[in-house]
Amino acid sequence: MPQRGPGPAPTAAPADAVRAASVRGIAEELAGLRGPLLPVLHAVLERHGYVHDDDVPVIADVLNLSRADVLGVVSFYHDFRRTPPTAHRVTLCRAEACQARGGEATYAAATDRWAGSSDVELGEVFCLGNCALGPAGTLDGALHARLTPERLEALTAGWDR
Predict the structure, then answer these.
(1) 93-131 pLDDT tens trace
(2) Interacting residues of 137 by C-beta distance below 8 A, sequence separation 6+
(3) Phi (first) and psi of residue 122, to 5 degrees
(4) Closest CA to 137 of 118, 161, 114, 160
């Protein structure tokens, strides 16, 4: 019986063929694992720093998944960044315990300081497990406690604004 409708949409060629080949190699190497999608995404992140939109159809093809399945996982977990990393990353806890200890003022100061910065990415998390020593945050992955606007300023002195 002939197929009705337009059929599947063709996949556009990736903008970076070298990257696509690298991502395909990673996916093929890990495809035999049980539940390979997360290990593949972690490996792409480790090698390339982020998961580009062009990586999604390559991974989907190798793992025999839909692009929607892959994109759903990438967009659900905040650790799978979809843009190149900045020079520095700050994440501040916005949960109740840190807010009760002055976290809102620290977050507001950080937002003011790095608004529009291309070198510092500011993010929020909702618990770092350091509630007794809040407000807590991470600076380039290192956990810091008792953050105030002044302490944050001192710890990041020299970072571009």
Answers:
(1) 999 999 999 999 999 999 999 988 889 999 999 999 999
(2) 90, 91, 92, 93, 106, 128, 143, 144, 147, 152
(3) -105, 130
(4) 114
Weakest-pLDDT range from 1-15, 56-70, 147-161: 1-15
124 phi and psi, to 5 degrees? -125, 145
pLDDT of residue 78: 80
**Residue 9 forms part of a structural domain:** no
Question: Within a domain: residue 82?
Answer: no
Domain containing 102 equals 88-155
Single pTM value for the model: 0.67
Q: DSSP for 49-109, please give it.
A: SS--TTHHHHHHHHHT--HHHHHHHHHHSTTS-SS---SEEEEEE-SHHHHHTTHHHHHHH
